[in-house]
């Protein structure tokens, strides 16, 4: 697995960026550097970690944001429950993009 660059102490959120339409795919939010699926938003409703994690397909592109704005991009390989934390919390496996 590639290591993500350190963006300092500011927590990062990333949101799905590619091929997203409000009716089809939710906006999905992850926390970095731990890659927890925080949840998502679709059709006016918030999604749980599990609901949002199930929508992350291999190759899904995400944009990284800090409090200063956009800071890069990553691609997801998959997402699944993190049994070490809690089965209700999903975590995403990521590849970094150049």
What is the gist of this entry?
This protein has 1 helix and 7 strands; from the N terminus they run E-E-E-E-H-E-E-E. With 98 residues, the protein is mostly beta strands. The model is unreliable at 6-12 and 17-22 (pLDDT under 50).
Element layout with pairings:
Layout lengths: L11 E5 L10 E6 L3 E7 L2 E3 L1 H5 L7 E6 L2 E14 L3 E11 L2
Antiparallel strand pairs: 1-2, 1-5, 2-3, 3-4, 5-6, 6-7
Average of pLDDT: 81
Largest sheet report: 7 strands, antiparallel
Spell out the helices and strands N to C.
EEEEHEEE
Placed side by side, the strands forming the largest sheet appear as 4-3-2-1-5-6-7
Shape: globular
Percent of residues in helical segments?
A: under 10%
Q: Which class of secondary structure composition applies to the elements? A: mainly beta
Kindly state the number of beta strands.
Answer: 7
The radius of gyration is 13 Å
Would you identify the regions where 5 or more consecutive residues have pLDDT less than 50? 6-12, 17-22
First-to-last CA distance: 14 Å
By DSSP (H or I, 4+ residues per run), the number of helices equals: 1
Strand percent estimate: over 45%
Number of domains: 1
């Amino acid at each position: 697995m590639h290591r993500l660059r350190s963006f300092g102490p500011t927590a990062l959120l990333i949101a799905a960026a590619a091929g997203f339409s409000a009716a089809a795919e939710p906006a999905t939010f992850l926390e970095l550097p731990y890659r927890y699926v925080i949840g998502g938003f679709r059709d006016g409703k918030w999604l749980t970690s599990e609901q949002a994690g199930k929508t992350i397909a291999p190759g899904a592109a995400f944009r990284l944001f800090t409090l200063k704005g956009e800071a890069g991009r990553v691609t997801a390989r998959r997402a699944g429950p993190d049994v070490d934390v809690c089965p209700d919390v999903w975590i995403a496996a990521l590849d970094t993009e150049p």
